[in-house]
Amino acid sequence: MSRDVTPLGSVRSAAALNEQIRALWTRAGGSLSPQERREYELLVVRWAEAIRDEVIEAA
């Protein structure tokens, strides 16, 4: 997995996670390897959690 992935339990903003997702797709050239796919899936889950947390915090 890429060194850019945040360790479990670390808190990242949705914007920072979105940037990691975009960087992953750029590095991969639009076609993810199986390892990159796992990294992408993890980042998307963390991004969704961060969005939810930001919405709850704003409320």
What can you see in these coordinates?
Helices cover 68% and strands 0% of the residues. It has 2 helices and no strands. The mean pLDDT is 85. The chain is mainly α and 59 residues long. The protein is elongated, with a radius of gyration of 12 Å. The longest helix has 25 residues, at 34-58. Helix 1 (14-28) runs antiparallel to helix 2 (34-58).
SSE arrangement:
Blueprint: H1 14-28, H2 34-58
Helix pairs in contact: 1-2
What characteristics describe this protein?
59 residues, mainly alpha
Low-pLDDT residue intervals, each spanning 5 or more residues: none
Radius of gyration: 12 Å
Largest sheet: none
Structural class: mainly alpha
Strand content: under 5%
**Mean pLDDT, nearest integer?**
85
Element-level helix/strand string: HH
State the gist of this model.
Helix content is 68%, strand content 0%. The protein is built from 2 helices and no strands. The chain is elongated and about 40 Å long.
